[in-house]
Amino acid sequence: LLPPAQDQKVMIFGGGEIGESPVSTRRTAIADLDEPKPAYRPGPDLPQPARYLSTVLLPDDTVLTTGGSSGYRGGEYRGQTRSDLFNAQIYRPSRDRFETAAESTVGRNYHSEALLLPDGRVITLGSDPLYDRAGQDPGTFEQRIEVYSPPYLFKGPRPAVGAGPETLQRGAKADFATPDAGRVRAARLLRPGAVTHVTDVDQRSVALDLVRSPGGVTVTVPQAKGLVPAGWYMLFLIDDKGVPSTGRWVRVR
Description:
Shape: elongated
CATH class of the largest domain: Mainly Beta
CATH topology of the largest domain: Methylamine Dehydrogenase, Chain H
CATH superfamily of the largest domain: Galactose oxidase/kelch, beta-propeller
Low-confidence stretches: none
Number of helices: 0
Largest sheet: 7 strands, mixed
Mean pLDDT: 94
């Protein structure tokens, strides 16, 4: 579910044929669920054919795509060579295009995951390759971890989130203190990750109505239960440069 969730657009990235087939794809597709008859249309192509791609919603309404391989579980059918992909990219829904991100140094394929951290970084971990790097012996489960810092962490100081409620009610307002209210332009609720087999269909970034005042902001949570399921979220304030605050844990009831 692309950010913000109110736009009701769903995107799928890459993929491959079942089993040890070497066939994978660069294609992406997007469906607008608000259309009378939703249907997938082509999105921009990935740089390389990829399966097992991890996608992570970021607080600035972009999507990080990282990891994956071109072959089955990091291998090639009958070839026994590793086919992990190290390129990463950021998809910008507002521009419908990918932008190049920093490459990873650890291959991530089958049984891998990526999660947004409350500080706005992304942790990548796991991978269960079919073969080792030499392409000879059975692979072993990857135990190394990497942490990716998105570009917004290098654009200037982060807005701060001060005192505010831990529990939010749908359809209600909530006040949060911040000394940076003058430059805060948006607020987002991001649901924490729940990944299995690189898939996290529970991801969502909900835009909150925002009113600024001296020393703080007032946010309004949408009323619709289907848009904001009950549970824990990270609240981010985003400034005029797209720099997010550290996430503040809140619970929607």
